[in-house]
Amino acid sequence: MKVMDRIRATTVGKSIFRVPDRVTERDRAAGHWASFLLHIYPVKVRRKEITFRYTWFLGVASLVLFGSLVVSGIYLMFFYVPSPASAYGDIQTIQTQVAFGQYIRNIHRWSAHLMVLAVAAHMARVFYRGAYKAPKEFNWVIGVVLLVLTLLLSFTGYLLPWDQLAYWAVTVGTSMAGYVPLFGEQVRDILLGGPTVGSATLLRFYVLHVAVLPTLLVVVVTVHLWRWRKDAMLTADSEVEDA
Length: 243
Ligand code: HEM
Hints:
binds protoporphyrin IX containing FE; mainly alpha; Cytochrome Bc1 Complex, Chain C
């Protein structure tokens, strides 16, 4: 008898784990239904659907890169104030005086570039394999939202160094947004917070970059992963074999 089974068999164990002994497949399935943490998982997943050959782990790579961006981004937040008076100087200080500043900033930048690549490659892999077809079509739509959020994170982060490149790139980008039919001008005005790129724009981009967009991304990724695990159970064997 394994150690965990022994613990489960005690009175204390029984009070904590309200799960039947996992002897038969039915018991294992019942365990999933009864457990709060496991309820997001399907009772069964086809082994092939979680292999490297099937996914190239590109979705996982996107997730790991996002984790790296969150950790390095939090470190950078300690040394950066989103105001035209200080932003440019803060970045110089991070590069030259802050402990591990240049290293962490480079991790942040490279992770951002690689995340855009990984997400695009993940999308291409899903498309090539036909994994967007029923019953996964809703997860494809969620994926498109994730792609947009990833690109918006890159775009909003681009302004923060407050150098010439950032200033003019965002001037061009927000002007392009202004040409969107029907509500383009409103979107541009909301982003800029004034007639041109200025202190209000920097603050807005900062809040979008460090709070609004990452929070949205975490929420949407959670739904994405939940759907992936649930849908993985519904795919026909033949579709997985062909992939
Ligand atoms: C922040 C961006 C994204 C993250 C973190 C992410 C994460 C993941 C992960 C971890 C998986 C599990 C399988 C794998 O590793 O490939 C997955 C599956 C999937 N993703 Fe994404 N994804 C993202 C963006 C996208 C985009 C842009 C699309 C397409 C428009 C997409 C469509 C799908 C679909 C349809 C599946 C299910 C594939 C299957 O079941 O075989 N995802 N995603």
